[in-house]
Amino acid sequence: MRTSEKPSSRAPANADRPVPPGTLSGPASRKLPVSPRERKPALAALAVLLILGGALATTLLVLRSGDRVSAIQIVQQVGTGQPIAQTAMREVQIADTGIGYVPYAERARVAENFARVTLLPGTLLTREMVLSSSEELGPGKAQVGLALKPGQLPGTLRSGDRVQVVHVPGRGGDSQAAAGRILAQSALVHSVGSSGRNGSAGQITIIVDATISPTVVTYAARGEIALAELPGAR
Does the keyword Transmembrane apply (predicted)? Predict the structure, then answer.
C-alpha cells in the first residue's frame, strides 16, 4: 500500500513577518544604489557670465559699427610738398574705426599746410600725411612757368607729378647737344593749366632749384624745353 506525501500547507514561520526597512529581497537586492546628481553652482554661474559677456560684446560691436564720423577725402592729386587746396577735398562719412582721419571741420586749417607724400584721388587724409612747412616750396626753390607745344610734354601730366626737364636744342643749336641735356632730374609739377586757344600750347608750372631756374627760363623762351614724366618718382 502506497502512501503519498502531501505538500505541507503550513507557511514558513517568517512569511507573515514584516520586512525591516532598508532590507531588499529578491531581484531588487541586485540593483546598485544610484547616487544623486551633484550640482555645481560655480560652473553654472560661469556659463551664465560667458553668455552675457558674449551678448554684450556683440551689442557693442553692432553699436560701434553704426558710429559715423565726417572725414576728408582727396579728390584731386596733390604732389609732395604742395599745399592742399580746399578744392582738392570733400566730405565723406566713414565708420569710426579709431584711425586718426582728419575731420572735415578742419579743412581750412589743412589748406594752410602741405602734403608730406603725393596724395592720390580717393585718399582718406590722416594727420601723418600733412606737413606744416614744405621743402619743395621753401628757400632755394623757384617756380618756373612754361608754355609747351604738343610733343614737348606728356598729355597726362597732373599736379604733383615728377618730370625731367630736358634741353632740346633747335635746328641751329650745338650739334654735340642734339641728344638733349637734362637740366633737372626730378622737378615737381606745381600746376597744369588748360591749353591755349588753338590747343597748341600747354601751360605748366614746375618747381626747380633756384640755381638752374635762369637756364630753364632762357631755353623755355626759345622753345627748347621738353618734359619727360617720371611715374615711379611720385
Answer: yes
Kind and range of the H or E run holding 53: helix 41-65
Does some domain include residue 81? yes
76 domain residue, yes or no: yes
C-alpha closest to that of 127 among 108, 148, 142, 106: 106
Q: Which DSSP category does 173 fall into? A: S
87-133 tens-digit pLDDT: 999 999 988 777 888 999 999 999 988 888 888 899 999 988 888 87
Reading the block at residue 219, the C-alpha cell is: 631755353
DSSP tag of 119: B
Does residue 211 belong to any structural domain of this protein? yes
Q: How far apart are CA 41 and CA 128, in angstroms?
A: 53
Mark residue 202 as left, alpha or beta (left: phi above 0; alpha: psi -120 to 50; beta: remaining).
beta
Query: Other C-beta atoms within 10 Å of 189: how many?
Result: 22
CA angle, 55 then 59 then 65, to 5°: 145
Same domain (yes/no): 146, 228: yes
Beta strands in 13-113 (DSSP E): 68-74, 89-95
Amino acid at 94: I
Region of 141 (left: φ > 0; alpha: ψ -120 to 50; beta: rest) is: beta
Nearest to 82 by CA among 122, 104, 123, 110: 110
